[in-house]
Amino acid sequence: MTLLNKDHFIELDRQDPLAQFREEFELPEEHIYLNGNSLGVMPKASKEKARKVVEQEWGQGLIRSWNTADWIHLPRRVGDKIAGIVGAAPGEVIVADSTSVNLFKLAAAALRLRPNRHKILSEPGNFPTDLYILQGLERFMDGKVHLHTQPRQEILDAIDDDTALVVLTHVHYKSGAMFNMAEITRKAHEKGALILWDLSHSTGAVPVALNNVEADFAIGCGYKYLNGGPGAPGFLFVAQRHQAELEQPLSGWFGHANAFAMSDTYEPAPGIERTLCGTTPVVGASLLEVGVDIMAAADMGRIREKSLKMSELFIALVEQRLADHGFGLATSKRPAERGSQVSLTHEHGFAIMQALIKRNIVGDFRAPDIMRFGFTPLYVRYIDIWNCIDALAQIMEIAEWDRPEFKKITAVT
Ligand SMILES: *Cc1c(COP(=O)(O)O)cnc(C)c1O
């Protein structure tokens, strides 16, 4: 490859069809934010929305706002909008709880749909909460089901006639590696198993076509690429064909067919609402809607194109400018196997990332040696990629990372 130069990046920004979306976000001054895969940035409209929800809807409307501000339909309304982003139909997605809790509800529900099977299949190194939740479920089933993990290259062969449910994260949180959703879903169904996809690092980052691949269940996160705000509620998907028979264990009153009849007996709502448990976190779900609206207005094909181009350029610059500094590449160079992030390995990764953050270039670190750089095409510019690598090269050349201040371990890396 010919040597890349700064002008090339400036030109790419000039031609970028997504460039105007950056205006919708409030980034701190002089920051390069490459951590939207962990916590997305704040849409400017979120401030106004927060004020409206708190001052008017809560402050003035009080209890009336369940009707007058339509709080009661918030989970479904935002869910329908997310459905459009992940290739689902209206009525198949709802906003609820956290990603972890949604996994518990749907995994338990899926097991009831395959009562004579004993295996849940996942991969070692999946996101910790996914494995922990499945381990908790396993304990509660008193030996009736067991969690089996198999390395990703061997997943297809590990799906067998005893597999009730396959639970995989579409884009891996650490490496950014992406599974072939269509192929694995097809294999699961061939074997009579159900599949649940965790879309935490996919939604708003890569094209997802849940109904095209005939996925059964999915869960995802509101505060990453959807820019819903810290601790935003998660969402879940249940394919229409499973809804009527779906029984989930957290049968709270918001999932009741008629919550305000105040009956003593639980009767599940007919559709996706039966996956709800308790009262909607109204403030969080309202802010999530702002992020979702922006994402829904953007073209996913263009997002993917820019994301791949950015990660490709990032990798090329690492090779061009950092070749002698001990970095490894933990992300696949094949576009079909890559989400919207690039992960580098380095034995001093933590300190190097701290030195970058000190310069207001924000990525993050995952033990033991992974430096993650997330590319969020709606607000990251091509020039940010150039400047990030430029700073990284300086940090390495003068061993800036080797200062004691960059080696203090923080609670959240
Ligand atoms: C971020 C993430 C979660 C988050 O779960 P919470 O319940 O919101 O804490 C779950 N799974 C994966 C794969 C994630 O990346």
From TrEMBL:
Keywords: Hydrolase, Pyridine nucleotide biosynthesis, Pyridoxal phosphate. GO terms for molecular function: kynureninase activity; pyridoxal phosphate binding. SUPFAM superfamilies: PLP-dependent transferases. One of its GO terms (cellular component) is cytoplasm. Its cofactor is pyridoxal 5'-phosphate. Its EC number is 3.7.1.3. The keyword Ribosomal protein does not apply. Belongs to the kynureninase family. NCBIfam families: kynureninase. Catalyzes the cleavage of L-kynurenine (L-Kyn) and L-3-hydroxykynurenine (L-3OHKyn) into anthranilic acid (AA) and 3-hydroxyanthranilic acid (3-OHAA), respectively. This is Kynureninase. It comes from Marinobacterium lacunae.
